[in-house]
Amino acid sequence: MRMFRQIALSATCLLILAPLAPAAAHRANLAPGIKEVTSAINGKVCATAGGAHFTFDNDGRFSYDGLWQSSGSFTLADNAVVVTFDSGLQRAFEISKRDGALYMEQTRILCTAKQ
Fold first, then answer.
1. Which CATH code is given to the segment(s) 32-113?
2. Which of 1, 18, 33, 100 has a 20 to 30 Å separation from 47 between CA atoms?
3. pTM for the complete prediction?
4. Closest Cα partner for 71 from 95, 59, 55?
């Protein structure tokens, strides 16, 4: 009977703690530094599953081709890309990694070398 209680207690603890492990691992992957952000997107074309394309040229130029088209310049920071559109509007987009995949805000992106 005592052994049964210990097993039940252990199982309960595992059920309570198991969801915390992926959350902790997920948090550890969320904030890539500037070197990782640079390596991931600089000089590359990043595409979404919906077909939108973000181009980040080595000379700091940015273009977007998706629901509309836009261009401007960009700078890189820890876990972010800061875009200044040709209109003058500036916007920072969070860059993160989750489960090994790259995300721009909440959208998964796949980046390949620009051809």
1. 2.40.128
2. 33
3. 0.70
4. 55
